[in-house]
Amino acid sequence: MQRAESGPAERIRRRRRLVGIGVAVLVLVLLGVVVAVAVTLSLRGNTRTFKETFVARCEDFNGTDCEKIWGLFEEAYVGRDPCKVPVAAYGPLIAAAPFPPKCNQRIFWSKTKAVVHDFTKKRKCFETVEDTLLGSVLDGQTWCGKEGSNETFATGCPGWTDCETSAVRSFWNGASAAFADAACGDVTVMLNGAVATPFYNKSVFATIEVPRFRSPKVRSLKVVLVTQENSLTSCENESLKDLQRKLDGGITYSCKAVPEAQINDCSSHPEKPCGSCW
């Protein structure tokens, strides 16, 4: 028959087990602290990096008080539910950096972002909303606030379709409206001829920009339908007829299908008049 261990030996073993458990608990606590600090620093790093990008882009526009612009920008969404930022919250920001009228130079786009921005980057005869101060500062950026926080977050924010009044979506809706309000003279839009519905009735162009084109301030709208080799869509597309019907009376409508290769070639030859690109 096996004999039980003596009292002192068992106490030593228990003490070792307790020390081991204590060390394990301490390690877990320290790991939790490290993770929490890392997350906090990461979020603060996001804010710093986002602001640095914002201010650096802003400073490309000489004579702009970028710290003031940043302050007005933050006021719109910091401390708010990221899905409850109304368009009006960006009103003071847009008022401080307005879109000055540039008759005959406004160009809009829908599903043609890459080609139109390549064109306006190389040729300065047209300007998209992303070529303006606020548009260029925030193009491609993601941001939001959180209730009870004074931080700007660049990750974990709602996507474009997650909510109608997200921090990002409300800004672009407000900026697009102001940009369209400033349009005058002859206005141009690049639409995608490689899709079945170039004029999509739920796009920003359809819902926000087109309704703001008013005659006689806007004389005409020219559609540049960007086509590929195998594009089946033409200027006779039913959605484009819908666009024509939605225009304010008195605005002249025209459409021309233009190969993307032709636009790219023209953008690389600054000696050519912009009008000849299509």
TrEMBL record:
The keyword Signal does not apply. It comes from the Eukaryota. Keywords: Disulfide bond, Hydrolase, Membrane, NAD, Transferase, Transmembrane, Transmembrane helix. Its EC number is 3.2.2.6. The keyword Chloroplast does not apply. GO terms for biological process: positive regulation of B cell proliferation. One of its GO terms (cellular component) is plasma membrane. GO terms for molecular function: NAD+ nucleosidase activity, cyclic ADP-ribose generating; phosphorus-oxygen lyase activity; transferase activity. Gene3D superfamilies: ADP Ribosyl Cyclase, Chain A, domain 1, NAD(P)-binding Rossmann-like Domain. The chain crosses the membrane at residues 21-43. PANTHER family: ADP-RIBOSYL CYCLASE (PTHR10912), ADP-RIBOSYL CYCLASE_CYCLIC ADP-RIBOSE HYDROLASE (PTHR10912:SF9). Belongs to the ADP-ribosyl cyclase family. This is ADP-ribosyl cyclase/cyclic ADP-ribose hydrolase. It comes from Gasterosteus aculeatus aculeatus.
